[in-house]
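Lab meeting, item 3. Inverse folding demo.
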């Protein structure tokens, strides 16, 4: 019996020795060493992330345009004031109406049959004047065109009119008369953030470090975030604000520079970024704060005095354009 036990032990030792030798002999096959890729070759993940960023950038409102930060400044003085332009086409007044890239302007674009003054416009066919629409996203530029008389209309939000009103009111010709509210911003403006920021309260300083946020100064975006910060009890001085020339420019700066914690902008950029860039999210929009930003347009006081019928018919035509949008949403889009 003892001899049998000793035999089993000896056999076990022999088997273990053979296995150990085999593992040592073919160790490189069983446990291959990880090969390191050349440092200059980016990983697949890095390439995919860059591809995603490039794809999102191509869909932003600014497109391929270069963007950069601008310096912080007080509201610049009005560059000059003069009488309004009296441009005519075929003997008819051409109303110059700058707008920004904003879905709320769909009714006037529909009513005007596009941006250019044309005879298929509701304003021409029913009311006997032309409308020339142009895209001016920069609020200060829009104000200065209004002051110098190169445009008759000032697009804006009520907070912008309040901001620009005192300087424009120094000359009776350029006092802004608000004639119509186009809409409430209902989900059109918002704040997109990355990392651990999931609400406006997460914009508070962390370990003494300020959150870095890019937006357009003296714009609806500026008013929007300042209102939310104050409501949340956050001192705006604890935010590292960086200034872009426009809300679309702010979106692109945020996408191409991951050091920014958030940007403030408007549709469609806020959705393009939050749905397209991994790790980003729309933390708040006017979908919830939907009576905070009112989109309006104002007319120069001298134009309002000289052309009351045109002003009234601008309002009527825009309301007709609203019915046209509802009747054919696809065409409006």
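The presenter then showed the designed sequence:
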């Amino acid at each position: 019996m003892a001899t049998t036990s000793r035999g089993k032990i000896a056999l076990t030792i022999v088997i273990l020795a053979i296995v150990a030798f085999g593992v040592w002999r073919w160790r490189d096959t069983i446990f291959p060493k990880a090969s390191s890729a050349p440092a200059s070759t980016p990983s697949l993940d890095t390439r995919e992330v860059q591809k995603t960023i490039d794809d999102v950038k191509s869909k932003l409102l600014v497109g391929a345009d270069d963007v950069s930060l601008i310096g912080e400044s007080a509201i610049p003085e009005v560059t000059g004031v003069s009488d309004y332009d009296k441009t005519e086409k075929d003997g008819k007044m051409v109303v110059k109406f700058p707008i920004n890239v904003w879905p709320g302007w769909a009714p006037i674009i529909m009513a005007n049959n596009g941006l250019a003054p044309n005879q298929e416009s509701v304003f021409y066919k029913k009311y006997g004047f032309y409308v020339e629409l142009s895209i001016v996203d920069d609020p200060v530029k829009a104000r200065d065109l209004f002051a110098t008389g190169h445009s008759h209309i000032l697009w804006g939000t009520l907070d912008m009119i309040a901001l620009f009103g005192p300087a424009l009111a120094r000359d009776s010709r350029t006092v802004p008369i608000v004639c119509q509210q186009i809409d409430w911003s209902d989900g059109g403006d918002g704040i997109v953030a990355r990392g651990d920021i999931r609400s406006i309260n997460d914009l508070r300083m962390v370990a003494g470090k300020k959150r870095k946020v890019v937006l357009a100064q003296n714009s609806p975006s500026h008013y929007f975030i300042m209102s939310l910060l104050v409501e949340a009890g956050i001192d705006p001085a604890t935010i590292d604000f960086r200034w872009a020339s426009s809300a679309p420019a702010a979106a692109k700066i945020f996408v191409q520079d991951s050091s920014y914690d958030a940007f403030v902008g408007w549709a469609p950029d806020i959705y393009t970024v939050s749905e397209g860039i991994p790790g980003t999210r729309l933390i708040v929009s006017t979908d919830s704060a939907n009576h905070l930003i009112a989109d309006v347009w104002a007319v120069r006081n001298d134009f309002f005095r000289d052309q009351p019928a045109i002003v009234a018919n601008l309002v009527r035509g825009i309301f007709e354009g609203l019915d046209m949008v509802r009747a054919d949403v696809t065409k409006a889009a």
